[in-house]
């Protein structure tokens, strides 16, 4: 079930009040259109019908995919969320993200039937290598797809709107799974953040083991 809320929004540019439809929860299978707008990162887009003013109206919501078995709590700007890991969600993979880009990545990872913790380890290894070829700039990498035994990542460089793509062999993913097995890594019961910082902690733990 998806939960829809209609809110009155006052346009910050022309002051016109109008309705804005937002969602407390989005069910992947019921709302393929909303899933698509997440994948296009346009879900929060809002345009004033009177003056055409454009804004991204970020709000917290929960994305649930019953078939793939995962729930993601989206909390823009680190806003607190009241979502609890209730018993019916026990068997689900539970994640917390900050924005649509991160949610999109989780969807692509889980839809590819991959483990996001292992994918973060792969990403860490890839970024360590490619950062050197980009003069050690701060870069952001997002999983994009798995193809021909390779994991492809979209790499965003500073001040470049379009990403560059880099791939890693599937063996690196298998090695990452092995690292997690060696460490007896188990997913937390609660909604957890699986990101580059977690990958760094896991690798440090592995190296010190
Ligand atoms: Zn307006």
TrEMBL record:
Limits of the CpXC domain: 9-123
Matches recorded under InterPro entries: CpXC_dom
Name of this chain's protein: CpXC domain-containing protein
